[in-house]
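Q: How would the structure tokens look for this protein?
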Amino acid sequence: MSDAAIENRQIPVNKPPASVRIQSIMKAIPMRIVLIVIILIWFVPILGLLVSSFRTPEAINNTGWWTVFGNIVAADWTLSNYIGVLYADFMGLAFLNSMLVTIPSTVIPITIAAFAAYAIAWMDFPGREAIFVMIVGLLVVPLQMALIPVLKVYTANQLNGTYLGIWLAHTGFGLPLATYLLFGYISGIPKEIIESAHADGATPWMSFTRLVLPLSKPSIASFAIFQFLWVWNDLLVALVFLGTKKENALVTTRLAEMVGSRGQDWHVLTSGAFLTMIMPLIIFFSLQRYFVRGMMAGSVKG
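A: Here is the predicted structure in token form.
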């Protein structure tokens, strides 16, 4: 048979019977219904928050947010809620403060954890197993147990109320999980690749920076999402180590103060709450392609 005949030859595909396809579709219906219900449970409150943030105080107090869909054009839309929150309520300054806290508190533990995970996975030194066991043990220690001892140390060294203090706090609280996740991925890199790099004269630093880090990008990105969301949405650590002064308050502490002092001003609270959601959503959707791949990496060994 000629090559052209082979190329033009169609390979028959055995399709499952119609009854089998219908049966598989019917089995998937309950799962799809559950997923739709979960999506609605999460989406409806967010939609109500968004709609209310663009409505006037009178409209919020008199009618429900869902009534705007009856006549969207005639609804009382306004941007004054966001303008008031950003300027009069210092939410714009709080937004910048949160960025100043969250970015270093995400980069620092990832950097330290990457070095530690590489050393534990591929470098032979005394006490390596004991250090790894200690890191795993720190994962089960509740965060609240360390607040008072750390606060006493901060007060003695005048670190309380400073950005350096909260950077160190979030680094210490996030480092065990970061090291554990990155170790699971880095230790899964084929041994032949590391040995080939060493045989070619690569130093441990060269292997780490030029080989391990590029290969570990999915795992690093997945933890970056976790750490960024945790620090951005954190209220407890921010209250304990940074305080509620307007010049260094974060979006969470500022929003909590608005709820406590002016819980009746729904138009302010909705716009302020939605502003706090923007940055986490941007970060998640920017890095979500790495999320599943990074979390599953290292969990299954071939």
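The chain is about 75% helix and 0% strand.

Residues 298-302 have pLDDT under 50 and may be disordered.

Upvote if useful.
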